[in-house]
Amino acid sequence: MTTAGTPAAPGSGPLSGVRVVELAGIGPGPFAAMLLADLGADVVRVDRPGGPALAIDPARDVTNRNKRSIVVDLKAADGPARVLDLAERADILVEGYRPGVAERLGVGPEECHARNPRLVYGRMTGWGQDGPLADRAGHDVAYIALTGTLGMIGRPDEPPAVPANLLGDYAGGALYLVVGALAALHHARMTGVGQVVDAAIVDGTAHLSAMIHGMIAAGGWQDRRAANLFDGGCPYYGTYETADGRYMAVGALEEQFSAEFLRLLGLEDLADARRDRTRWSELRERIAARFTSRTRDEWTAVFEGTDACVAPVLSLREAPHHPHLAARGTFTDHSGITQPAPAPRFSATPTAIRTGPARPGADTGTVARDWGIPALVNEDPVTDAD
Fold first, then answer.
1. Staple 261 to which of 1, 54, 166, 308, CB 3.0 to 4.6 Å?
2. For the whole model, what pTM was predicted?
3. Strand order in 42-47's β-sheet?
4. Spatial contact of 385 and 359, defined as CB atoms under 8 Å apart
5. In the predicted model, is pLDDT for residue 5 greater than 90?
6. How far is C-alpha 336 from the chain's CA centre?
7. Tell me, what's the pLDDT at 12?
8. What does the pLDDT look like over 43-87, one tens digit per residue?
């Protein structure tokens, strides 16, 4: 029998040799498992019978890249045993069920730790494992609403702007689960003792606002939208529409950058207005008027090679073609899909996209062989994809 931490499938990256079990879900759980896989971990996704929960072609679900997939029916008589066999050999398990569901299915922390005391059991939820809302349904926008962070975003005379699901699901959720899982893995390898990581989107998103809470306490931040230095309230930190209906982003906070910015706009006479909040409206109106005089690409050329801290606002399809991002390889093409490359970067253990999105059940045979669990093939006869 193999043990946790034994190198199995060929991989690359600093987590090569780390084994991860992902109980299929949606949103932050799969993204967290993708990040672990990008870093070199051998991630086995346990998919449900009947296909994915989201209406997306599995071949295009980038969050399942660098993973392998098996299909297990956890409601079948032998389903929980298959997951426990995996947990026994794993370093990390990731699940995103409502509190109590994994326990009812027979694959909760108690059952898994009975088989593998060193296991890091990562739990990804919106509300957390306890508290008055723990059992309630929810989505990203509701989680970030309660933390105060949604209320920070947008114009004061409009409803708060929804930042896709990047702030809650991925920044406040998935990334905190990964940090917690890796910290707990370090502890497990030092002590031989695993533990449960309770990663709640409300906790992580609130944590992201730590600096803002400090600024409020110090009197340097007003608790309302677009009234502060970097929430759109400051005229030299925000976005402006151009003549062609596109936008430029301005981040000229420091005085030397602001001076360069105003010089290139031809508004040097407004240099003193940056220090006078009573003139911010005047400054914003003058800047806005100047930006509407040229197109986004024309303004991009004006600010090219300067320290004015100005950049064009690109679309998702435009971003991969920007010269800087192209030079760094920030985006890459794999399996016919343009997608972000793994991040961050490592000098000694470089990461890579090794495989395209895992197809549900396509890797049962190789997982059974590499993890030493022949019963996986007996339970699910799906063969490896060509």
1. 308
2. 0.93
3. 67-71, 42-47, 19-23, 92-95, 120-125, 195-200
4. yes
5. no
6. 22
7. 81
8. 999 999 986 666 788 999 999 999 999 999 999 999 999 999 999
pLDDT higher for 42 or 56? 42
Q: Tell me which residue has tokens 């040799």.
A: 17
| Active-site amino acid positions | 139, 169
251 CA to centre of own chain:
24
Average pLDDT over residues 190-215: 98
Q: What is the largest CA-CA distance in the chain?
A: 78
Number of CB atoms found within 10 A of residue 229's CB: 13
Distance CA 21, CA 24 (A): 9
Type of residue at 219:
G
Amino acid 274: pLDDT: 87
Residue 92's closest CA among 62, 63, 114, 113?
113
Paired strand residues for 21: 44, 93
State residue 50's pLDDT score. Answer: 82
CA distance 284 to 292: 12
**92: β partners:** 20, 120
Q: Residue for token digits 């949604």?
A: 150
Q: Say how far apart CA 154 and CA 167 lie, in whole Å.
A: 14
Judged by DSSP in three states, 237 sits in strand
Judged against a pLDDT cut of 70, whether residue 381 lies above it is answered with no
Residue with tokens 């030493």: 372
Pair 273, 279: CB distance under 8 Å: yes
In angstroms, the Cα distances linking 11 to 60, 341, 355 are 21, 16, 10
Residue with tokens 């925000």: 238
How far apart are alpha carbons 19 and 9 in whole angstroms?
9
Question: Hey, which bits of the chain come out as E strands?
Answer: 19-23, 42-47, 67-71, 92-95, 120-125, 195-200, 237-241, 247-251, 310-312, 331-334, 337-340
Mean pLDDT on 270-288:
93
How far is 100 from 294, CA to CA, in rounded Å? 58
Please give the Cα distance from 42 to 70 (Å, whole number). Answer: 13
Tell me the DSSP string of 304-341: TTSSS-EEE---TTTGGGSHHHHHHT-EEEETTEEEEP
Q: Tell me, what's the pLDDT at 127?
A: 98
